[in-house]
Amino acid sequence: MLTHFFVTGTDSRVGKTIVSRALLQAMIAQGKVVLGYKPIATGSQELADGVRNKDAVTLQKSSSVSYPLSRITPYALSDEDIFTSHLPKNIFEQMTDGLHFLRQEAETVVVEGCDGWRTLITPKRRFSDWVVQLNMPVILVVGIQEGCVSQALLAAEAIIADGVPLLGWVANRINPCLAHYAETISAIRQNIKAPLLGEIPYLPRAESREMAQYLDLSLLNELSVA
């Protein structure tokens, strides 16, 4: 059984949180206890009751057990803070500690990244470095839009080159007007060896919908992570 895996995207705003929600819902439907974890998030807002990040809220509502947002997203940054915030020098260790805590509380933890695979969290440290350090299996979210074939192939090649397992990819239709949708999916399938785990159609207010039916996790059931 997969105890944890990492969800990355071809870019920002391709639907990583929506796919993470679908993955959590699909595993809950299988009777598993699962939790979402997004250690670093941008786009957060300072509210009267503290910092709030909508992605963290979506993961919180999609998990088997409700945990405080500070556990789900310990570093909730505004868009302006991502390069100016003073993240601690031991940021990777703290992210790992948070993951270990949640792993004790759930059978599987869905770890969502920030933006794409090569995202910098400090001027010299990439989010992917942490994933590689933990040898964490990866699921790639491809936002189906113009130019996504090249983005998908580049991202998949980078993940594989870094030496971590690419479990599969999920197509998220973020442009409902895109022509040649089927041909786009076919082109990516023929050039990425990892399996297509599902296709999520364009859905308004997807963060509040049930989406387990769009995924087929049977290919993941026999995988195990120490």
TrEMBL record:
Keywords: ATP-binding, Biotin biosynthesis, Cytoplasm, Ligase, Magnesium, Metal-binding, Nucleotide-binding
Annotated residues for binding of substrate: 42
Pathways per UniProt: Cofactor biosynthesis; biotin biosynthesis; biotin from 7,8-diaminononanoate: step 1/2
GO cellular component: cytosol
Keyword Plastid in annotation: no
Binding sites annotated in the UniProt record for Mg(2+): 17, 55, 112
Entries under Pfam families matching the protein: AAA_26
Chief location: cytoplasm
Localization (cell): Cytoplasm
UniProt-recorded Gene Ontology molecular function terms: ATP binding; dethiobiotin synthase activity; magnesium ion binding; protein homodimerization activity
Domain of life of the native organism: Bacteria
Chain residues that bind ATP: 55, 172-173, 201-203
Matching Gene3D superfamilies: P-loop containing nucleotide triphosphate hydrolases
EC number: 6.3.3.3
Cofactors: Mg(2+)
Catalyzed reactions: (7R,8S)-7,8-diammoniononanoate + CO2 + ATP = (4R,5S)-dethiobiotin + ADP + phosphate + 3 H(+)
Enzyme class: ligase
Keyword Plastid: no
Residues of the active site: 38
GO BP annotations listed: biotin biosynthetic process
Role of this protein: Catalyzes a mechanistically unusual reaction, the ATP-dependent insertion of CO2 between the N7 and N8 nitrogen atoms of 7,8-diaminopelargonic acid (DAPA, also called 7,8-diammoniononanoate) to form a ureido ring.
NCBIfam families documented for this protein: bioD
Family the UniProt entry places it in: Belongs to the dethiobiotin synthetase family.
Subunit field text: Homodimer.
Name of the molecule in the record: ATP-dependent dethiobiotin synthetase BioD
Organism per entry: Rouxiella aceris
Phylogenetic lineage: Bacteria, Pseudomonadati, Pseudomonadota, Gammaproteobacteria, Enterobacterales
Gene: bioD
